[in-house]
Hints:
The chain has 378 residues and is α+β, with helices and mostly antiparallel strands. It contains five helices and 17 strands. The chain has helices at 2-17, 33-58, 120-138, 142-148, 313-353; strands spanning 60-68, 75-84, 91-97, 102-104, 109-114, 171-181, 185-191, 193-197, 200-204, 217-224, 238-240, 247-261, 266-280, 292-299, 302-310, 358-360, 371-373. The strands form four sheets. Strands 1, 3, 4, 7, 12, 13, 14 and 15 form an eight-stranded mixed β-sheet that branches. The chain has a five-stranded antiparallel β-sheet with strand order 5-6-2-10-11, with no helix packed on it. It has a two-stranded antiparallel ribbon with strand order 8-9. Helix 2 (33-58) runs antiparallel to helix 5. The longest helix has 41 residues, at 313-353. The chain is elongated and about 110 Å long.
Amino acid sequence: MKMRRLNRKKALNLVKELDAFPKVPDSYVETTASGGTVSLIAFSAMALLALLEFFVYRDTWMKYDYEVDRDFSSKLRINIDITVAMRCQYVGADVLDLAETMVTASDGLQYEPVVFDLSPQQRLWQRTLILIQNRLREEHSLQDVIFKTVLKGAPTALPPREDVATQPPNACRIHGHLYVNKVAGNFHITVGKAIPHPRGHAHLAALVSHETYNFSHRIDHLSFGEEIPGIINPLDGTEKICSDHNQMFQYFITIVPTKLKTYKIAADTHQYSVTERERVINHAAGSHGVSGIFMKYDISSLMVTVTEQHMPFWQFLVRLCGIIGGIFSTTGMLHGFVGFLVDVVCCRFKLGVYKPKEVSLPDGHMNNHTVITENSKH
Length: 378
């Protein structure tokens, strides 16, 4: 029994010797006003930086990884919502890819007669969308915000009219989706309905007068892949007005397959960049072509994986300990250094007080004037 107690005592003494935080008796500790002031400043800085670090811990960021896209057999979905300022019986839409495969609009698109001019609420919606597009072109980091807030944002489809149109329909809304081969292709809207032809691709345009050509159009939505509410695509809200009857609009689109993985959604979608060109068809001036809207798309061989990441909890604790310990140590060293400087300066002034001072006494005390030294500090 005594041996156990002895061993316990030895173990306890050994643990005490390993104490890295020795205790100082309260009678040896002196508090000062300067030390209290520095402590208040240090604790305030700790609290402020710890709060800011907590906000950083709550935030997330998007990580981009790139790899080769090995999916060649799947189909590509094209989501379309375009309004053309011509009647539906005069226009036709279809897709022709490099494999000479033609997909007509009857496979998934609908033709709806509408009024081309927008109502006040629709016009406000379009202007707001254009402002957002301009901001996205200037601030590319806003795309990360859109990725993190998907499903919260409203779809970019044009809202329905809030009033009743007073004029008859003078335009055609072509909307829906198509499934095409995962190769480069050309989606186009031109005069006349597409007709099957064994030697190529043709539109029945002979019965349409040139004076009725008007390819002014508005792209309310154009996306590739899975349609996700809240994602804003580069051509959403685009509006083009013709200056001539025979006019061609070309959009050269590069599609990038994208896997989106956030805390709210995991989806396979596609991003794209676009270059625009428009010109008037004038064969006499050497500007050849066909009037219409042509969207030539090509698919990138790289695939982007966008993943939402979060700071691990252990990393947050390490950073928090670094903030608290760093501020505590730094303020302690600064306080000691400033105190040392103050002591040095005060000591120099105090040494000047002990200089000898000459005092003369009257003749009644001594026969002659005798000079003695007197310390001014008793």
